[in-house]
Specification:
The protein is built from 1 helix and 7 strands. The protein has 83 residues and is mainly β. Bound molecules: zinc ion (ZN). Zinc ion binds next to loops.
């Protein structure tokens, strides 16, 4: 579950994610900078609680944890998570 933007109530966010997957490359010994991608597999993207999030309607920015409602309650102090 997600919350709208804490600042403006907007519901569209830009999430910084990391992509992981694999590709095959063909290198050219004659030209160290050249290579061809010969095959690729679908990449997966994933976010974590600490992934950066920007509101697209205002200048609010935070992390996924700030807009997820099923994680640590916002009222908790940061240190409490490790108690
Ligand atoms: Zn906003």
């Amino acid at each position: 579950m997600f919350k709208p933007c804490p600042k403006c109530g907007g519901r569209e966010f830009r999430v910084q994610v990391t992509f992981s997957g694999s590709i095959c490359i063909l290198v050219d010994p004659e030209d160290p900078e050249a290579y061809d991608v010969t095959d690729s597999e679908p990449t997966d993207s994933a976010w974590e609680d600490l992934s950066f999030v920007d509101c697209r309607d205002c200048d609010w920015s935070g992390t996924m944890a700030d807009i997820e409602t099923d994680t640590i309650p916002a009222a908790m102090e940061p240190g409490d998570a490790f108690a």
